[in-house]
């Protein structure tokens, strides 16, 4: 209800409602009865106000108000007249509506800005005059039915309590919450304490100690490393005691582990003063020494991107903390944190989601501007993704690089996006450390109680520029003039404690001096500091190793016994009688049953299910998520069967045996960026399980490119963090247009170096089976990017036998020619290709009866199987070498394989010494949208690839003409 509800016709309605109550109490809604009854039971109070409220004397002010000049109305039992009681009822209702409005809008008048730049302006709905009151009513008691903890209160007292509760240095947004229990909890928690922070003297001194460490550390760095980028926390130091409060109170409420994510602003301070990374270690990094042990390889990263882990103890309770490494994409780490939290909760059996907590620190501009924030909120309450709520701390320094808030968001607050999940939002003035810590305590208690997200928006400022080497006054002269004269948060709080006689000024000064002396000592020892052993292969990663040399020659044990395969097959093809399976799926199950009886015709989806099932039988949990994964985008998977009668679900792969690990398949929200980041985070915490993300179509992964660029391809090199994540990208040219053809394999190949990940385009279900099992069966972890098929899912030639999955079978990086041809030295052309185009070439070759053109499949593009490719090319010593692909020349694999193939033919002395290209010409669009044109293009490339008379030379660019320039590409 708005304040205007209580004027005009509505006031008349309420008066009439009261008249109806007097005639028959049961004739009105029960919600009104208690209020009317209380008024009638207190005739003394009513008798003392026979004149009624001041606004009641002016009949034109409120329609329906009593006219005191009229003859005295009939008295009701207790001595009060109808008009007097009616006036009293309206008075109370208006007061209650004003209280409600403060709950809704009081934050608009809160004192949040330490700089005073954004002073709150008077809001008409927070003015008592809006409700018909005047100054003459300020000292008159009003019945408010124990709201605000008072049965009655003077209007002046009500206004004072409301401003203290809702308009101080904490402003609360919670009335948008629809759950009545959650809303009532926040209201009670705030109004019971009047939002007044109460701390013991010891508690206050502890807050000052944390502020002293936070400020002292930044000042020390500024002096010792002037102008060096560190993205300091100055102006936002109150976040340190706030996080400490979350850890301390959280440990009391059951928190055992915290996964922390943040961008670079304040990261060094959090590392030092929350994660307790040794100061000498940080100083050593500033001096140019490596952050990681000398025996660990990697490119490293700048100091303010690094993560770490530690154990903190609070009152005898241990909280394990891990800070995730993060790139400069400010909010990219958010879903990674959530995925890791979910994985850890599963590992320790935290089904209530109260033992592992995710905390994310945001900047105000990033929180409002980065879409992945909304994607993460969108996942927060979904099955398979919920983590029991995340604590979001916004370090709101009221500027984004150089952009002021009015240019960086459209809403009132940077935190408005959190309302999409009805999260409570606590705005707090960063220069009031006690208020910040108090709000942090409310936040963790709320999260533990309701398992929901909560946001603490700490309004502060940024004392330096975006980094410490720039001049912020270029763009914000007014703000930085105020900042230059602003007393630091630590000094303001020290003055406050001195004024409260909690400590003397000498004690406060000594605290700062002692900490500075401690830093000086750490600075001296940093010169000889040696980092400890890296922790990246500890915990659940223990027993795993880095990738060894000559990986190409390793054949990992991915085979299975026929018995194990048939056991999974039985689970796949058997459903309980109580499950009403769709008739079309019943036919598919019958077909699968035939596959296992004959041992032939294993298609792509069945091979995948066998890989999942056998790994689960061996104790490895499987997690597959993505859009429509349960059924499969192309109706190929059906790993979740829907009962046609009641829509209950049945997952066959979870019914193999009583001892198996769990198979989890999730239809994800329509998100790529956040969901892929989530699964990457999950894989970081679970090296012993197979974690997969599937794009609905391969090109949809371009919405998640940041995760590929910043985490998947480089996380191990930058941060020494391995991942075995599998990414499935449907790919293939079937005439479905530019958006449903190419998964852009060239993008992933461009990211490949230093054995950082694998890129495959497989042509047999058996090879897919072994590729998936290889992820777990070897003793290291690497991300795997697979261009998965679409039309091949049902292609009659794209099948394998059970024997191909059974004993003495394994993954093939290169598949040689499989059909009978002329003698090797009489083969005129060897065509190398990858993926679906092989079947197009095979069909065209059979149709033409060609026997002197060999087809060799490169199944794994990276790591490049040089020796295996070399062996196949050398085998056909008189043949022309051709690379054939469906994709345009500037896409696909050509630019990646061309220098590598050219190096091989030159190294072997092969004649002719040039590698030819067959495929679509270079194009801006991945594919045509016209089926007729597509068919013509496919026919043309098949003809060119197989016709030795149509020699399709493409001259090589100059840098690729000398073998000496290619040696490093032959890896």
From TrEMBL:
Gene Ontology cellular component annotations, sorted alphabetically: cytosol; oxoglutarate dehydrogenase complex
Region (Disordered): 50-82
Pfam families given in the database record: 2-oxogl_dehyd_N, E1_dh, OxoGdeHyase_C, Transket_pyr
Domain Transketolase-like pyrimidine-binding span(s) in chain numbering: 602-795
Keywords: Glycolysis, Oxidoreductase, Thiamine pyrophosphate
Broad EC category: oxidoreductase
GO molecular function, one term: thiamine pyrophosphate binding
Enzyme Commission (EC) number: 1.2.4.2
Keyword field contains Oxidoreductase: yes
BP GO annotations: glycolytic process; tricarboxylic acid cycle
Cofactor: thiamine diphosphate
Gene3D superfamilies found in the cross-reference section: 3.40.50.12470, 3.40.50.970, Multifunctional 2-oxoglutarate metabolism enzyme, C-terminal domain, TPP helical domain
UniProt keyword Oxidoreductase, yes or no: yes
InterPro entries named among the record's database cross-references: 2-oxogl_dehyd_N (IPR032106), 2oxoglutarate_DH_E1 (IPR011603), DH_E1 (IPR001017), KGD_C_sf (IPR042179), ODO-1/KGD_C (IPR031717), THDP-binding (IPR029061), Transketolase-like_Pyr-bd (IPR005475)
Known partners and oligomeric status: Homodimer. Part of the 2-oxoglutarate dehydrogenase (OGDH) complex composed of E1 (2-oxoglutarate dehydrogenase), E2 (dihydrolipoamide succinyltransferase) and E3 (dihydrolipoamide dehydrogenase); the complex contains multiple copies of the three enzymatic components (E1, E2 and E3).
Role, per record: E1 component of the 2-oxoglutarate dehydrogenase (OGDH) complex which catalyzes the decarboxylation of 2-oxoglutarate, the first step in the conversion of 2-oxoglutarate to succinyl-CoA and CO(2).
Recorded family membership: Belongs to the alpha-ketoglutarate dehydrogenase family.
NCBIfam families with a match to the protein in the record: 2oxo_dh_E1, PRK09404.1, PRK12270.1
PANTHER family listed in its UniProt record: 2-OXOADIPATE DEHYDROGENASE COMPLEX COMPONENT E1, 2-OXOGLUTARATE DEHYDROGENASE
Protein name as catalogued: 2-oxoglutarate dehydrogenase E1 component
Lineage, highest ranks first: Bacteria, Pseudomonadati, Pseudomonadota, Alphaproteobacteria, Rhodospirillales
């Amino acid at each position: 209800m708005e304040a205007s509800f209580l004027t005009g016709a509505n006031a008349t309605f309420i008066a009439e409602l009261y008249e109806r109550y007097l005639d028959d109490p049961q004739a009105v809604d029960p919600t009104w009865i208690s209020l009317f009854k209380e008024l009638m039971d207190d005739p003394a109070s009513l008798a003392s106000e026979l004149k009624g409220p001041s606004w009641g004397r002016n009949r034109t002010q409120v329609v329906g108000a009593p006219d005191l000049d009229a003859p005295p109305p009939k008295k009701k039992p207790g001595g009060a007249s109808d008009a007097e009681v009616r006036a009293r009822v309206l008075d109370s209702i208006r007061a209650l509506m004003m209280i409600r409005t403060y709950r809704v809008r009081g934050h608009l008048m809160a004192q949040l800005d330490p700089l005073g730049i954004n002073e709150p302006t008077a809001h008409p709905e927070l003015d008592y005059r809006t409700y018909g009151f005047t100054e003459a009513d300020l000292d008159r008691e009003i019945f408010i039915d124990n709201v605000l903890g008072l049965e009655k209160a003077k209007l002046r007292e009500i206004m004072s309590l409301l401003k203290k509760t809702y308009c101080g240095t904490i402003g609360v947004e919670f009335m948008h919450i629809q759950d009545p229990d959650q809303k009532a909890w926040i209201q009670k928690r705030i109004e019971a304490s009047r939002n007044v922070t109460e701390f013991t003297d010891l508690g206050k001194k502890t807050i000052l100690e944390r502020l002293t460490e936070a400020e002292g550390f930044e000042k020390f760095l500024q002096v010792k490393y002037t102008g060096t980028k560190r993205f300091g926390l100055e102006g936002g130091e109150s976040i340190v005691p706030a996080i400490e409060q979350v850890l301390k109170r959280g440990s009391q409420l059951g928190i055992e582990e915290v996964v922390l994510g943040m961008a670079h602003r304040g990261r060094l301070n959090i590392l030092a003063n929350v994660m307790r990374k040794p100061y000498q270690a940080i100083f050593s990094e500033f001096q140019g020494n490596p952050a990681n042990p000398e025996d660990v390889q990697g490119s490293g990263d700048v100091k303010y991107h690094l993560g770490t882990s530690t154990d903190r103890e609070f009152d005898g309770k241990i909280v394990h903390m891990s800070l995730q490494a993060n790139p400069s994409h400010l909010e990219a780490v958010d879903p990674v944190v959530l995925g890791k939290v979910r994985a850890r909760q599963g590992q320790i059996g935290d089904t209530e989601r109260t033992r592992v907590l995710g905390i994310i620190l945001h900047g105000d501009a990033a929180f409002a501007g980065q879409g992945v924030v909304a994607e993460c909120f969108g996942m927060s309450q979904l099955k398979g993704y919920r983590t029991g709520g995340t604590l979001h701390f916004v370090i709101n320094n009221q500027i984004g690089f150089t952009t002021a808030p009015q240019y960086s968001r459209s809403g009132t607050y940077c935190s408005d996006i959190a309302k999409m999940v009805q999260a409570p939002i606590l705005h707090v003035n960063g220069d009031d450390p006690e208020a910040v810590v108090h709000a942090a305590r409310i936040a963790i208690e709320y999260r533990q109680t309701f398992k929901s997200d909560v946001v603490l928006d700490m309004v502060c400022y940024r004392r330096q520029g975006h980094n410490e080497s720039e001049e912020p006054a270029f763009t914000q002269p007014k703000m930085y003039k105020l900042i230059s004269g602003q007393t630091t948060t630590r000094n303001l709080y020290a003055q406050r404690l001195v004024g409260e006689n909690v400590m003397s000024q000498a004690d406060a000064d000594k605290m700062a001096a002692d900490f500075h002396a401690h830093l000086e000592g750490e600075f001296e020892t940093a010169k000889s500091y040696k980092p400890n052993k890296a922790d990246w292969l500890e915990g659940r990663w223990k027993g795993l190793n880095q990738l060894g040399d000559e990986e190409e020659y390793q054949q990992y044990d991915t085979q299975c016994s026929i018995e194990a395969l048939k056991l999974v097959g039985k689970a796949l093809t058997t459903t309980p009688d109580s499950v009403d399976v769709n008739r079309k799926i019943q036919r598919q199950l019958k077909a699968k049953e035939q596959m296992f009886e004959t041992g032939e015709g294993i298609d792509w989806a069945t091979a995948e299910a066998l890989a999942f099932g056998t790994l689960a039988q061996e104790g490895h949990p499987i997690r597959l998520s993505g859009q429509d994964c349960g059924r499969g985008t192309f109706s190929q998977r059906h790993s979740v069967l829907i009962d046609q009668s009641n829509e209950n679900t049945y997952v066959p792969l979870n019914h193999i045996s009583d001892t198996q690990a769990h198979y989890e398949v999730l239809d994800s929200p329509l998100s790529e960026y956040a969901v892929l980041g989530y699964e990457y985070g999950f894989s970081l915490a679970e090296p012993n399980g197979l974690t997969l993300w599937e794009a609905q179509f391969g090109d949809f992964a371009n919405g998640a490119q940041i995760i590929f660029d910043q985490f998947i391809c480089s996380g191990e090199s930058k941060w020494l963090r391995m991942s075995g994540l599998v990414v499935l990208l449907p790919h293939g040219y079937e005439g479905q247009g530019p958006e449903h053809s190419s998964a852009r394999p060239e993008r992933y190949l461009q990211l490949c170096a230093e054995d950082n990940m694998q890129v495959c385009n497989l042509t047999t279900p058996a090879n897919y089976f072994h590729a998936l099992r290889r992820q777990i069966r070897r003793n290291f972890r690497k991300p795997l990017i697979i261009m998965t098929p679409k039309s091949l899912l049902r292609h009659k030639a794209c099948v394998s036998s059970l024997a191909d999955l059974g004993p003495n079978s394994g993954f093939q990086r290169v598949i040689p020619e499989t059909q009978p041809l002329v003698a090797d030295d009489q083969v005129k052309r060897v065509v190398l290709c990858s993926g679906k185009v092989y079947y197009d070439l095979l069909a065209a070759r059979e149709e033409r009866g060609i026997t002197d053109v060999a087809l060799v499949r490169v199944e794994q593009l990276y790591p490049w199987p040089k020796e295996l490719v070399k062996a196949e090319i050398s085998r056909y010593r008189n043949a022309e070498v051709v690379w054939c692909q469906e994709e345009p020349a500037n896409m696909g694999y050509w630019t990646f394989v061309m220098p590598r193939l050219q190096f091989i033919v030159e190294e072997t002395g092969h004649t002719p010494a040039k590698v030819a290209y067959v495929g679509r010409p270079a194009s801006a669009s991945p594919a045509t949208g016209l089926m007729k044109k597509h068919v013509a293009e496919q026919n043309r490339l098949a003809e060119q690839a197989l016709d030795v008379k149509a020699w399709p030379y493409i001259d090589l660019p100059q840098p690729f003409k000398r073998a000496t320039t290619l040696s490093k590409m032959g890896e």
